Every structure is written in C-alpha cells, then in structure tokens.
Amino acid sequence: MLPSITFAVSLYEAEQVMAISGKKKKKKKKKKKKKKKKKKKKKKKKRKINSKVELQEGRKEGNDKILEVVSSR
Fold first, then answer.
1. pTM of the prediction?
2. 15 with 24: CB under 8 angstroms?
3. pLDDT band at residue 15, thresholds of 50, 70 and 90?
4. What is d(CA 1, CA 25) in angstroms, rounded to the nearest whole number?
5. Distance from C-alpha of 44 to C-alpha of 46, rounded to nearest angstrom
6. What does the alpha-carbon distance between residue 57 and residue 47 come to, in Å, rounded to a whole number?
7. Biased-composition ranges for Basic residues (predicted)?
C-alpha cells in the first residue's frame, strides 16, 4: 500500500476508536451577536392650559386644609 493510503486508513481507524470511546470532538457553534434595537422616545403631548383656574382653586382648598390642621395643633 502507498504511504498516503495507509495514513488515511489509520486516521479512519482512529476515528472509529474515538467514536467507540465516546470522545469524538464536537464542533462549537459560533454565537451570533444580536444587534440592540434603539427605542424610540415618545413625545409627550402638551396639554392646553385652559384648566389653570381649576388647578388654582384646588390648590387653595388644599392649602386651607393644611392651615386648619396646623391651627388645630
């Protein structure tokens, strides 16, 4: 036999022995890097300031309540 053929046969036999012993090399899978998606920022809707009077009245009521609690102490 030619030396190249004997070498190939010996490699084949070595693989068979490895398979029997369960030590066959496993190919590692390369992990693909995931690209991060950029989150779009939501624009806040600006409220129209028609309710200014209601807010001020609410604040006045709130302040009165606080004053009552302080005066009761």
1. 0.19
2. yes
3. confident
4. 29
5. 6
6. 18
7. 22-50
